[in-house]
Amino acid sequence: MKFAIRVIKNQFHPLKVPQNANIKHGQLVLVRTDKGEEVFKVFLVNSCIQRLWEKHQPEALSVVRILNDEDLKTYSEQKELEVKAFYKCRDLAQKRNLVMKFTQARYTFDRKKITFYYTAPERVDFRELLKDLTQEFKRVRIDLRHIGVRDETSILQGQGICGQDYCCCKFLKKFEQVNTKLAKDQGIPITPGKITGACGRLLCCLNYEYKNYLEAAKTLPPVGSGVMTPDGIGKVFMVNFLKKSASVKLEDGKIKEYQRDEIEMVDGEVNIEIDINNNLNYQDEEIVDIKSLEDDKNSSTGNI
Known about the structure:
With 304 residues, this protein is of the alpha+beta class. The protein has helices at 47-55, 69-95, 127-136, 149-156, 167-170, 180-185, 192-195, 210-217, 284-293, and strands spanning 3-7, 11-16, 28-33, 36-41, 43-44, 61-66, 101-107, 113-119, 141-146, 226-229, 232-240, 245-250, 255-259, 264-265.
């Protein structure tokens, strides 16, 4: 059997387990990482993942020991200290008038190092803050890490509008570029509440089925094209890729939905006015917000 742990940002590592250790799924163990000794929950790796790892084996980390009762007490105290450290660091930053939003504070198990994760709209000169923290946390190594808003969400975790855990908390390791064109091409209303995640950026899942929509679009007439329907000539107002249908505005102003095999494209210009923006709910008051949603600069830093 193979065991592994999940560190921050969905980095999975197999474990080097001592022969005399009787590790079980779900146990807390002390693991040696590049930051020091840290506590993680163990999970059993299924056979599919094992085969995948045979091709590209992640770095294996060594298990120091399974947490005993005394260790569990120490770990519980550590969690409480992390909360206090988090608020103390935030207060000190506010006194220095630094624009920093702190996400989490994490101690190593021996409490010799503490890492503060924060987001900021631009680079922050935290040298004076670091001096304050050095005075506050004596004989402790201080690490201030600037992360992006997408990284922040992956750390804090939660559930999306789909009812599932955030992709960045479950399996997503690398953030791909996302823009509003992905939503437009899929016929999704361009409203921030429907196309953004908790991070305030466009949903990563807009990328997942995009290729399927492009393939479906090849079988349907594009929006704005002239078509002949059973009810006469019209112009395509909107397409529904999942239903393989198109909504057509007819000469009398009515809009009716037809299946792909019920309509036929026509040559030449069709003298029917349609407003393409209306079928996507693209409102003028939201355009400014949309531009900010597409700003992926520093949304993910890889500094976790």
